[in-house]
Structure formats: C-alpha cells, structure tokens
Amino acid sequence: MAERPLDLHGRPLGVLRLSLTARCNLACPYCCPDVEDAPDLLTLPERLALVETTVGLGVHTLRLTGGEPLLHRQLEALIAALQPLRRRDPNDPRGVLREIALTSNGVLLSAERARQLKAAGLDRITLSLDGTDGASVARMAGLGGAAAGGAVLEKVLAAIRHAREAGFDPARGALKLNAVITRTGNADQLLPLAALARQQGLELRLIEFMDVGNRNGWAPEQVLPAAEMVAGIGAAWPLEPVGRAPHGTAGRWRYQDGGGLLAVVASITAPFCGDCNRLRITADGVAYSCLFAATGTDLKPWLRPRPESARLQEALESLWRARRDRWSEERQEAADQRPAPAEMAYLGG
Ligand code: SAM
Ligand code: SF4
Predict the structure, then answer these.
(1) Is the whole model's pTM more than 0.85, yes or no?
(2) Domain 15-347: CATH architecture, name and number where available
(3) Please, which residues have CB within 8 angstroms of residue 73's CB and are 6 or more apart in sequence?
C-alpha cells in the first residue's frame, strides 16, 4: 500500500462511514433525520471512487449507514460493485477493503433483502432497537403510540431472524444490536434489552445519548453513563471486562455465565478520540473527520464532472493529514466555545 497518512495526533485512517441518505422511515427524537434528501446526492460511481480512494489511504472497513440505508435503492448494487476491492491481494499497494458492514433500523429488512445483501457481499449487520415493548419503541422511534411501536418491534424481531437465516451469524460477530439509552426515555429497557440479546445470542451495544446535531434537545442530564448501564446489567448477570479493541468505539464485557458479550459506547463519559481512525462522508459528499465536528469538506469538486482519482486522493490525504479533532475529549474543556455539530443522520453514527 502507498504510505498511509497520519493525522496531527498520529492516528491512521482505517474506517469509512458512508451515509447513503439522511432520510429515514423512523423519526427517533435523539437523531431527528431529514424529511427530504439533499438535492445532489452522490451517484454510485462517485461513491465507488470515494471508497476506492480511501482504501488507498488505509481504509479497511466500510460501514454503510444513514439516515436509513435500506431506503437507498442502490445499496446492493454498491456492495456488489465494491467486491473487486475485497478480492485484491493482501499486499496490493492500492490497499484492500476487508469488511463491509451496515447499520440499519431493520424495518425494511425482509427475508429477501437480507439474502440479497448477503449475496452482494455484505459481511455484517448491526440493527438498532431501543426497547422491547410497543410503548418504549414508539417513544424512542418517534412513533404515534404503543400499537405503532409494537408493529416496528415485530419488524425488527423479524429482521433479526431474516439476517440470521441469510447467514449473518451473531456468533461470528456478523449480527449485533445497537440501543441508544437515555435517562428518561428508556433506561427501564436496559434489562429487557439485555435479556433479549442474551436469549438471541446477540452482542448488545449500548450507546450513550450523544450531543450530535442541533435538533435533538440534548442535555447532559439525559445521558445515562455507560458505567451505570454496566452496573445495572451486571447486577442481574455478573460481567467481567474484556476491554476496548484498538481503534474501537465500544468497551466490551463478558457475561460470567457464558451469556455472550455486552458492549458500551461511552462517547460522552469516557471518550476514545485518542485512537479514532474514522472518516465520515455524507450522502451528498461532504467529508467530516469527527462525529462531533461542525464543518466538513465538500468533496464534489473532485468528483464532478467525473471522479479524478489522483486529485481526489490528494484532497483526502491532505484533509486527513490536517485532522486535529478530538471533540469528545475536549467537550468538558471547551463546552462554551464549541461550534454546533452536524446532524447524526448526515454522519451515520
Ligand atoms: N438508521 C440506522 C439505525 O438507526 O441503525 C442507521 C443510522 S443511525 C444514525 C446509526 C446509529 O446512531 C443508530 O444505532 C442510532 O441509534 C445511533 N444514534 C442516532 N442518534 C444518536 C445520538 N444522538 N446519540 C447516540 N446514538 C445515536
Ligand atoms: Fe432513523 Fe436511525 Fe436516526 Fe432512528 S437513529 S431516526 S432509525 S436514522
């Protein structure tokens, strides 16, 4: 591989999170997605060029996200078109894409769609679910009432089945569950969610409510610290620490009774900027080098009228080399000077 750029804190690039749309079929109040797509969404060839270029700069894992990525009609076509990057020789100087993952709310994950995603070459799926009863799901997904929440819950439970049957094996980490926990929204769902995940053999990833965007009314009192989540679940099923993988987002715990793994993403109370290797690109081609950054770099000038790989590589490389973000760690230091960050649905989590 060509020399991998390091940012100003010596961090390499490793993961690309590509948002395919900022729209969603749910309206989780902690996220608040767009109702309409941006006018000039990237095309499939433009997205391919971006992935290929970032792979040349060190990206080994691609996460497709949104908004809701299953709303994107070309999702399977994009995954299929990326496969040549997977099949490269491990020593190919142009880099190799090792993994393609998807984060989805699961509502549109039919049995057929799960099979199509698998056939296209998707490796892993993380499904999001914030409660185990209709009222909780409705509250956290911005739905009208318990009946609507119950219907979404049924769809997500079916999506878990469909993904598993299509070959996304939770025992190999290919199927996981995400849940955002807020203090007054769904803290009472911690144990039911953990029980569901244990029973289904899924790793549950509990996410602290983050101050991303301007729309979600974030307040520190609403954050349930990861340590409290772990203590609550550990009191029911004792846990032992596994630690956080290098460049990972989640601290992991193992159930002592053999019930699998639990993970917590403590972006607010225990930030992990020190080895962050993630670049985010919005559905309309704006690159953000931090989830909490206020401004990004519009890459369309290097993609249109057609992608020019050498110039695109130069632009992305200089963006990464100039990266100094450690917003989550600086949160406490400079809360009052911090510019408003971009919306979660643009950056995809
Ligand atoms: N729609 C898909 C989903 O919900 O999985 C993918 C996009 S969503 C933005 C990606 C992840 O970000 C989800 O697991 C979601 O729960 C999480 N998320 C959204 N807003 C958040 C916030 N303010 N704080 C913490 N996590 C958030
Ligand atoms: Fe949609 Fe995911 Fe945002 Fe919820 S978190 S509104 S499911 S994009």
Answers:
(1) yes
(2) Alpha-Beta Barrel (3.20)
(3) none
